[in-house]
Each structure stands twice: as C-alpha cells, then as structure tokens.
Amino acid sequence: MASRPTGDPESLATAQQAPLLGNADGRTRTTTTVVGKALSSTADLAKHLPTGAVLAFEFLSPTFTADGTCTAANRALTGCLIGACAFSCFLLCFTDSFRDQTGAVRYGFVTPSGRLRLIDGAGASQPAPQDTRYRLGARDVLHGLLSFLVFLAVAMVDSNVVACFYPVESATTRQLLAAVPMAAGAAGSFLFAMFPSTRQGIGFPAAATF
Questions:
Q1: Burial classification of residue 103, based on how many CB atoms lie within 10 Å of its CB (0-12 exposed, 13-18 middle, 19 or more buried)
Q2: What's the CA gap between 157 and 172, in Å, rounded?
Q3: Residue 169: how many CA atoms within 13 Å on its side-chain side?
Q4: H or E segment at 148?
Q5: Radius of gyration of the chain measured on its C-alpha atoms
Q6: Using one digit for the tens of pLDDT, what is the confidence trace for 169-194?
Q7: Cys bridge to 109: 31, 53, 117, 201, which one at CB 3.0-4.6 A?
C-alpha cells in the first residue's frame, strides 16, 4: 500500500494555497508597475507643457474635487478646470518672447504676418518686432494640439480626478486606464522629438539670448 503523507492538516492546506497567493501578489505587482510607468510617462510629458497651467491644475485640483469625494457640483467644477487648463496649454503654444532695449523679456502672440502681437501691457514704448521666426505656422498648431492632448493625459492619472470621475476597483480596468496615458505619452514624446518647438512663450523658459 502506498504511504500517505504525514503532517499537520493546516500546514498541508497552507502549502496548497501558496501558489495561489503568489499569483495574486504577482497581479498586484503588475498593476502597480503599470500605474507607475503611466505616472512616469506623464511626468516626463508635463515638462513640455506651460508651467503655469500645470501648476494651476495641481494647486486647484484637490479643492475642486474635494480630495476625490466628488458631488455633481464638484464634477462640473473639475471638468471646467480641466477644460480651462487644457485650453491654456493650447493657447500658450502660440506665444513667443523677445528682449527689449532694456533687457526685459516681453511676450506676445505670433501672427501669420510675422509681427509679434504684444500682450504684456507695456504700451507703445517699443514697437513690436517683425521677423520670420514670429510667423504662425503648422508646427505651432501641431504643438498646440499636442499640448492639449498631453495635458488631458496628465489629468487622467491624477488621483483626485480618477476618484472623482471613474472610481474603479477592478485591477483589469485600472490597467486599461493606465494604458491610455502611457500610449499618449509614447506618441507625444515621439512627436515632440520629431517636431521640436522653438517658441519661448508664456510658461516656457526664456533663453538668455534671443
């Protein structure tokens, strides 16, 4: 007769369940890794966005979303905040700057004619410069659209926005939601690298010389 295995029944039960627990931990680690990669991708992309719009969103988001415990009014306010910041990212891609005779940095909107339309309220102390580098082009429109979409991708993985608009418990759903900004991050990084912007507008670092 074959001998039966000996041992404490509780130990045997624990040994049989160990692989299942290991798989569960593996799924948890996988989900954490995917979300971490999404946050890393969007953090890198945020460097291409106007700092003012990103900082405004990060500062106001916890208040507008009530730290993720949203009501219908909170959702409406948060949606307006995201829309306003995304539109700001789009609009500010059409700004550029120059240094006047005193060395001060002045800002304006680029135009099809190449004359910078000043918006800094300095008046007529110095005429607006006109140059081919201030001419509105297809690259400006591309960067505006990219900035708009990239900001939406960054906002999607904000913890308060997630808790406010689409709170989910399923690990599969969380992975799908994390994959969206990752895909946007990959596409945005490729396009930003292929078509770099030369603008030094509002919210972007100004060069020491122009």
A1: exposed
A2: 16
A3: 0
A4: helix 138-156
A5: 25
A6: 667 776 777 677 677 767 777 877 78
A7: 117
Three-state SS at 42 = helix
Residue type, 78: T
Q: How far apart are the first and last CA of the chain?
A: 92
Q: How far apart are CA 76 and CA 92, in angstroms?
A: 24
How buried is 57 (Cβ within 10 angstroms: 0-12 exposed, 13-18 middle, 19+ buried)? buried
Per the structure block, which two tokens stand in for 134? 């201030």
For residue 137, which phi and psi values (nearest 5 degrees)?
Answer: -135, 180
Residue-wise burial string across 63-96, b where 16 or more C-beta atoms lie within 10 A, e elsewhere: ebbbebebeeebeebbeebbeebbebbbbbbbbb
Q: Which residue has the tokens 């418990």?
A: 169
Residue-wise pLDDT tens digits, 59-78: 999 999 988 888 889 999 99
* Helix/strand/coil for 122: coil
